[in-house]
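Can't attach files on this board, so I'm pasting raw text. These are the components:
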Amino acid sequence: EAGVAQSPRYKIIEKRQSVAFWCNPISGHATLYWYQQILGQGPKLLIQFQNNGVVDDSQLPKDRFSAERLKGVDSTLKIQPAKLEDSAVYLCASSLASLETQYFGPGTRLLVL
Amino acid sequence: GENVEQHPSTLSVQEGDSAVIKCTYSDSASNYFPWYKQELGKRPQLIIDIRSNVGEKKDQRIAVTLNKTAKHFSLHITETQPEDSAVYFCAASSSNNDMRFGAGTRLTVKP
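---
Top answer:
Structure tokens for the assembled complex are below.
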């Protein structure tokens, strides 16, 4: 069974630039999550999708972050414009349903200079 | 919203000893409590989880206990091995879809 795929794996940008991350969840998984993990901290949930609908985006900085999951499969997370404090690993995870085991992708390591 | 606190932040044990990591949560509606292991530079991986309808769950050398009254849950690793060295995260979530992670515990098992 293929796991959660993410791209790119690494990204370096300058502040105020834009960046987008892509996630392909495990086939059949209805729930998709985006997390931000700053070095030395636990993952912070940014947004959770159930199929193509948002069920939790309370911790998403909506002035600069946006996410979508068109057709309820792949998802993209965008940051525009980026700030230095956005430097982190962005993890995508998926599960069959909420409150079920989450499987994480390899993450995208973002460095904002 | 949910808030999860995790202790200790670092833990060093001798190989063969037991390790215990504790977490507290704030939302009494939380009913799902997973534990993840994250090795350096790798993705978090689920090692065990527990739901609010049970007080304890065990899987070989790993066990988790839950006290809903006190709103805390703990991870127990027995007969630790060097390959258990990693960062461990607890998390809590309710049907409100508000998964929140603790800050992590860096476990070092010394041979």
